[in-house]
Amino acid sequence: MKILSGDIGGTHARLALCEVEGAVVRRDIQAIYESRRYDSLTDIARAFVSEHHIEVHHACFGVPGPVQGRQARVTNLPWEVDADVLERNLAIDSIYLLNDLEANAHGLATLSEDDFRELRPGEAGAVGNAGLLAAGTGLGEAGLYWDGHRHRPFACEGGHTGFAPGNDDEIDLLRYLRAKLGGHVSWERVVSGPGLVQLYEFLRERDPEAATAELTEAMAAGDPAEAVSNAALQANDSLAERAVAWFLGLYGAEAGNVALKFFATGGIFLGGGIAPKLAELLPTSDFITRFQDKGRMRPLLERMNLSIVMNDKAALQGAASYANRRARGEHG
């Protein structure tokens, strides 16, 4: 069955025409659009359909934000999305909306072993619920409930829960962010691309002499988070290295929170754009230490598998897989 699928992010919108056969999803046509250049998801989808001269009867879009019924208000974009309006405007019979991380979670079952990089093995033969975190433009989170036969993904907005400092430096960071942001500080404010920039700027205020002109110029000329990440990966900027190391520790702390809340004995997966890019640094970072530093629950967390999702098309494939099941009358 041919499905139009979309992975809509705050920075980029990825669309694909997919052919779905059982658990196998093939992406036949793909395109990437700059989200903020368009006034709505309808405009992006219409551009894709028009440019590639395609005709489909079913579509599914993963959108960043809470989906309630057939409507969604998109986080980090000034959009409201209504599936009924999309169906009328695009002349598509059935359109489904998923939270973007829920779409990612559906996509895990469509990937191969080569699409994962194990950060730490879990207990042999372990089954159960799983969790997915994806740091990128924001911090997305989703759960996968184990029903005894397969995982059933569900959305949440856990990235917007309150940031909890784990040491004195992070207490200072919280005070800094509260003053800067004017109130609630969520985990997304520190574990995301913009969050990495916040960490770097906090450290730069503490130690201005450590800042380099090269990185300052690179941050001003392009994507600041990417500039900080690249400098850390190249190991040529001590302040960037400190910011990224701190970021990975915080990522681990929040991953541990998700693991406990979802009782994720089936494992924790790291998706999004940042974890794969920093995959070489993750094993030697404080990620695992902070992940399992949960007091009396440490033995439980030590037995959980940790894996990085290296394939950035999981959400596209997950949306297509979900739409295929719904179109066939199956529950998602």
Describe this structure in words.
The chain is of the alpha/beta class and 332 residues long. The protein has two domains: 2-107 and 313-327, Nucleotidyltransferase, domain 5 (2-Layer Sandwich), CATH 3.30.420; 114-310, Hexokinase, domain 1, CATH 3.40.367. 39% of the residues lie in helices and 24% in strands. The chain contains twelve helices and 14 strands. The strands form three sheets. It has a six-stranded mixed β-sheet with strand order 9-14-13-10-11-12, sandwiched between helices. A hairpin with a 3-residue loop joins strand 1 and strand 2 (12-21). Helix 6 (213-221) packs across helix 7. The longest helix is centred in the C-terminal third of the chain and has 25 residues, at 238-262. It is globular, with a radius of gyration of 20 Å.
Give the overall shape, derived from the CA principal axes: globular
How many whole angstroms does the radius of gyration measure?
20 Å
Strand content: 15-25%
**Main sheet characteristics:** 6 strands, mixed
